[in-house]
Amino acid sequence: MPRRSGRRDAYISGVIVAIDSTSRANGPRVSAETMRSVLHLLAAAAIGSAVAVAVAHPLNPRQGGGGGNTTIECAPIPSPFPTWQQLPQQSTLPDPFLPLQYTTPDNAQDVMAGRGEGRVRTPEEWYQCRQPEIVRMLQEYQYGYYPDHSQETVEATRSGNTLNIAVTAGGKRGQFRATVTLPSGASASKPAPVVINIGGMQNQAYLSAGIAVAQFDYTSVSPDSNAKTGAFWSIYNGRDIGVLTAWAWGFHRTLDAINMTVPEIDAGRVGVTGCSRLGKAALAAGLFDTRITLTMPMSSGVQGMGPYRYYTMSGQGENLENSKQGAGWWTNSKLGAFVNHSENLPYDAHTIAAAIAPRALVIDQGTGDQFVNSKGTAVVVYPAAKVVYDWLGAGDKIAISVRGGGHCDMSGFTSILPYVQKIFFGTETTKDYNDLGSYGSPVTTAFPWGTAVPGA
Ligand SMILES: *[C@@H]1O[C@H](CO)[C@@H](O)[C@H](O)[C@H]1NC(C)=O
Ligand SMILES: *[C@@H]1O[C@H](CO)[C@@H](O)[C@H](O)[C@H]1NC(C)=O
Ligand SMILES: *[C@@H]1O[C@H](CO)[C@@H](O)[C@H](O)[C@H]1NC(C)=O
């Protein structure tokens, strides 16, 4: 069955082509994500009960990438995206270095082994081409498309430690609240980093470490159901977007409000966390907003740091089928087409993690937590993602804590705290965050491309 052959032929055989700025404008170069826009907040932060209004301008962080004279030309992103039938069935974790254009069924063995034609070759190409492609692909197949933040106006008021957040877009308005708890000594002249969480965390250990804690009521952003109520759906009802993405948006708008109204918090050092389904949301929050310094998914399972493949590794794993059946609203409807065909997905959990690089990611898993397949996260997903982090020269920005205990055990928060302190304060720790604990060693056969990284 010939497929996407036109597009493939249209693409020059080399992956990297140096072109001048004239041909660049006309070439098939992929435009990067408009959703990755950066907020320019006009109003200065104010203490007490003040109002600040943010006006967003789109800014493409990839424009001008590639460093001056030479521009990298990206493999075009297939349009429309391939269906599951047009993708190779891959029993091992897909090669993160292979653009979607080249992820074809006619060479499945090469694709799985990291021998596919057209892999990205350099970190520059990763950041300019493949990383934005992954973010787009994940929205297409799983999350739904993140709303264009440049079309939103965010207003925030602060009353004590409560933030009232209102977002307006397209004449529609959604509102929700967040609370902040400051560590002692935090001030506008000595602002503290913050961890934004949903569903609760171990506040005191973090406050004692000089880290502020913020929380929003995620159900007021979107309920954990098909009901399209809450702040997010007040604006975006009707769109094929998963609830994980709605919650991620809640993290981001909370950060906007903190930046506008809480000068005691340093909005440049931000962690996001949650456990289980809320850990899946925290992962999405880290993926979709480069302002997030540290992503902290706890016991997150499938659509978090649990793999779609290898879900039997812990004996009773969450998988695509049971997650889509039990809580199909977490993701978009398109993911439903892959039910019973998860091995045709051109990504897995390690791909999500890799797309966050070089920003920091720390993964919590409990050995008593079979349902979210802690073992699979530890021996398959984590080491596969670390191959990419290492290749990008950011190997110390990905970490895992394999602890005892079960699902959402609060000890997970203290277990990762030394790593959080390392990221926020540069404090060294002797704890080994590459240690898979009782799970032992990585299962390298799950990512055969790991021994064939580009340029090696
Ligand atoms: C905070 O707001 C300022 C403008 O007031 C903006 O330049 C900065 O990028 C914002 N930071 C974050 C983390 O949103
Ligand atoms: C542009 O090219 C010139 C000449 O090859 C080189 O000296 C310079 O470093 C390049 N600039 C960048 C930003 O790559
Ligand atoms: C998936 O497979 C199961 C078991 O064979 C079947 O009952 C179910 O209908 C299938 N679902 C889809 C969407 O194909």
UniProtKB/TrEMBL annotation:
E.C. number: 3.1.1.117
Residue ranges of every copy of the 4-O-methyl-glucuronoyl methylesterase-like domain listed in the record: 165-393
TM spans (from-to): 38-59
Name the record gives this protein: (4-O-methyl)-D-glucuronate--lignin esterase
Keyword Signal among record annotations: yes
Enzyme class: hydrolase
Record family assignment: Belongs to the carbohydrate esterase 15 (CE15) family.
A UniProt-annotated Pfam family: GCE_fung
Entry keyword set: Hydrolase, Lignin degradation, Membrane, Serine esterase, Signal, Transmembrane, Transmembrane helix
Reaction equation(s) it catalyzes: a 4-O-methyl-alpha-D-glucuronosyl ester derivative + H2O = 4-O-methyl-alpha-D-glucuronate derivative + an alcohol + H(+)
Single biological process term from Gene Ontology: lignin catabolic process
Gene Ontology terms for molecular function: carboxylic ester hydrolase activity
